[in-house]
Prior knowledge:
The chain is α+β, with helices and mostly antiparallel strands.
Amino acid sequence: MAxxxxxxxxxxxxxxxxxxxxxxxGCRRQCLPDRVYLRFxxxxxxxxxxxxxxxxQVSSSIPTSSLFLHVTxxxxxxxxxxxxxxxxxxxxxxxxxxxxxxxxxxxxLYSPDxxxxxxxxxxxxxxxxxxxxxxxxxxxxxxxxxxxxxxQRKPYGTMEGxxxxxxxxxxxxxxxxxxxxxxxxxxxxxxxxxxxxxxxGGLQDLIQSIKENDPDKISVNLSSSLDMVAELExxxxxxxxxxxxxxxxxxxxxxxxxxxxxxxEKGDDSKFSTAAGGEQKGVATIQVALDGYSAPLTAxxxxxxxxxxxxxxxKLKSVNQAVISDNERANYGFSAPLEIMPSGQFxxxxxxxxxxxxxxxxILPLSVYGAIAMAHSPDSDEYSSASxxxxxxxxxxxxxxxxxxxxxxxxxxxxxxxxxxxxxxxxKTGDMIRSAKLLQGQDRLIxxxxxx
Length: 452
């Protein structure tokens, strides 16, 4: 089955590759510069199965009294199939030029999981390797965030029941939760636990806002409670919950969370709008949370590159649905293997893409606005580029059925933009990373002996 693919060429390559040549990623197709090409399914190549053909026929053995109902059901199936075909064949604009998309590839034809994380905060919480006691608190609270999306009358009774489940779990598992905290984190952990149970923005406030049927208050208090849960989980997380394969022990690795701050600078005379009605500035700041729990090699390589100053002064290139660093040829970094942690698994897969059509979904999805990932190596899709990263500007309108990016499960996602997301849509080709700084995580960064 053909995999979907996001081509992210560097500016150097684009200038050297005419539009009539093959893609810089190796696909034998005609590509135009300054574009990200998504390969879509060619429905005409999919012949219906014999069972489908038989199912669309009305058997002569059907009683006359049931014929109308049977034909109606078959028509409903036909309409559903036609709707899928129309959605797949509908062309999506590619940039402002309106160029049509390249055909021939497979796409996601159903929604593998409607509860795939859609925000950076949710994805990062789910990625924490917490113990079962903490997950029994977190899971019912996460369910409330999905219930809040219901546009009609909210199921407040179900929400209240979910909070009570979390309260009961937190009360029953108090000793287990507190005993799992390292000695130097006990004091902070006790304070966070107390706030979660009875403090401002904790579970008691969340129940009260549900009883008041106030969705806005529920959202605020839910976010506060989940932040406390995530902090407790991070306090007790000792590091990686799995052993790296021996062949990758000579790579830099991040054994937890990190935070990188980028100072971005406009490449022309334009300005960044940092807030509604706020002062426009020629520089702006974004912060990226790195997740070494799910992608230790990729996040570790990126953190080391930041410490080495590899991104200081690097220009950015804006393409459809992504902003990429224009530094693929720089002599920096490790060409780490493709690294993806599947949902429900305890360790990453290496040099293997996921098949979302079979229900394989990553812990860190690409289908989140502000996801940060490494581009593929120019030599093999089984490896990531040594230094070239991109920030994905996920747009549900350009996603496949089920709301997943057509490139979901194809790249090593290792974090998300958590502050300054409003800046991302303003980045243009020629803008620059003035500086990059590792704010948090250096104590979790393990470097090879030769790199110290």
